[in-house]
Amino acid sequence: MTTSTRATRCRRRFLSRFPGAFRDATYLTWERAYKWDTQTRLEAGLGKAEHERLLLAGEYDEKATRALRVEQQSRDSMIFSFEKMALRDGVRTPEGAQRFARGLFAYLHGTGGAKTRFDAWVVALDGLPRTQTRVLTWPVVSVFGFIAKPRTHLLLKSTVTRRAAAASGVDR
Predict the structure, then answer these.
(1) Which residues 6+ apart lie within 8 Å of 79 measured at CB?
(2) Hey, which of 45, 63, 95, 122 would disulfide with 101, CB 3.0 to 4.6 Å?
(3) Distance between CA 164 and CA 171 in Å, rounded?
């Protein structure tokens, strides 16, 4: 089966479930609404000004707690439970909370190009204390950018992406 045939089959399957495509009411309910609500909660409790205020006040733990809470309160979590636990463990220490808080602010609101900010965010997450499992996974790296700026950042779940690529006939 050719790539275009497989991709057409995937598209047909998607449209059979969501006839209105990305504007379909069911699609919006299942895939978009809770993500939009999560973004709204992040902006309300941890917008740029509030994020900056917490950093200047040295309230790294509060900033990290708020960021994690926003994702956890999502109707359908965007990261797996083991990733949540690793992230919570990583920000439990004052140093970890500070690294996370500063890194997230620089990633979302800092200066410099997107690649530079993203690379620094990866380094910040990679430097978090590790208790059991690693913090540095694609969903953890990408979830906060996606929540804060969904028009700019995507949420990457590598296993799902590989499966979709394989079903579509796209080389990995």
Answers:
(1) 71, 87, 137, 139, 140, 143
(2) 63
(3) 11
pTM (predicted TM-score):
0.82
Q: DSSP letters along 14-56, please?
A: HHHH-TTGGG-HHHIIIIIHHHHHHHHHHHHHH-HHHHHHHHH
Half-sphere exposure of 124 (CA within 13 A, CB side): 24
Q: Which residues form the domain of 136?
A: 3-168
Number of independent structural domains in the chain: 1
Angle, alpha carbons 108-31-161 (nearest 5°): 75
- Note down pLDDT in tens along the chain; length 172 residues: 666 788 888 889 889 999 999 999 998 888 888 788 888 888 887 889 998 999 999 999 998 998 888 877 766 677 788 888 889 999 999 999 999 999 999 999 999 999 999 999 999 999 998 877 777 889 889 999 988 888 888 888 877 778 877 777 776 5
C-alpha–C-alpha distance, residues 171 and 162, integer Å = 9
